[in-house]
Description:
single chain, alpha+beta, Phenylalanyl-tRNA Synthetase, Chain B, domain 1, three-stranded antiparallel beta sheet, 3 strands, 40% helix, globular
Amino acid sequence: MRKRDGMLVVWPAYFEKSLTRMQGRRIPSNLAASNVTLKILEIAAESSGFDYETESEKKYPRGTSDYSGYLLVANPESHKKKRVLLMLAKGVRRAVAQRESARLAAEKKKKGKRKRR
């Protein structure tokens, strides 16, 4: 395993609303989101201004058999991990909200086409 000085490992499970703290969620449930993926974490890291690397095909140690991967976030200002997670949580919620609104708009558009026939 390579050394990661100044880097924090961030798993999607840290932000998953359906998980309990014992199952691996690290932020309060009112700040968490559902169906958080590695892509959403990347979007959140970009919007928060962090440098990051992705490691896909890695399995969360506390999780089940899914390989979700993780994000290595640069922490040059030496913030505590909790603070970095809270900064990322804002971007995660924004990305999930955009994904949901796009899904609902596509669903509505698809539903509207059916009624016209």
